[in-house]
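Model it.
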Amino acid sequence: MSVKFEKETIRDTPIPGGRRQDIAHEIGEKLTGGGGPSQTGYLAAYLQQLQKNPLRTKMLTSGSLSALQEVLASWIAHDQTKSGHYVSSRVPKMAIYGAFISAPLGHFLISILQRLFSGRTSLRAKLLQILVSNLIVSPIQNTVYLASMAVIAGARELHQVRATIRAGFLPVMKVSWVVSPLALAFAQKFLPEHTWVPFFNIIAFVIGTYINAHTKKKRLAALRKMRDGIRNTMSAAG
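Modeled.
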C-alpha cells in the first residue's frame, strides 16, 4: 500500500516549470511542424514559399525586417516623434526600401554568386566565393544601402548622396568584412542555397539595427548639445 501511495504522490506532483516547457514545446511544433509528418510548421511553410515564389517571399521578408529595424532602432535610441511614438514616417520608407530595392538586389547578386560556384565544393572554391562576396557583392549592396538611407533622410541633391556614401562606406565595409566571411562560411556549411538570402537578411537586420540605433543616438546627442549651446548663449546675452 505504501508503494502505491508513493507512486500516486509522485504522479500527482506538478513538475517545476512544466507549463513553461509545454508552451515552449507548442511553439517549437508550430515553428517546425514537429507534431508529425502530416503537420507543416511555419518555418517549413516559409521555406516552401521561398522555393515556389522566391523573389516575392524575399521582398515580403526584407520589407518587414527593414520596417521593424527602424522601429526597434528608434526604441533603443529613445528617438520619439513629436507625438511621443517610435513609429515615424521613416518606417514605411524603410519597408519600401527593403521590399523593392534591397530584396531584388540581394536576390540578383546572390543568384549570380551561387551560379558562378554551383557544384564547386572544394576549399579553394569556397574561399574564392567569400572573396568575390566581400570585394564585389558587399560593396554594391552597401553603396545602394547608403544612397537609399541618404534619400530617406532627406537628401535630394546628388552631391548630398555622394557625401553620405563617402562618409559611411568605409565604416560599413569594415563591419561587412568582419561579419560577411563568417556568415557566408556558415551558410556554405549548414544552409541550403535557397535559404541564403533570408539568412543574410537576418544578419543585415541585426547589424542594421545596431548601426541605425548608434546613428540615432549620435544625432540626438548632437541636437541636445546644440540646444544647450543656444540656451547658454541666450542666458549669457540676458
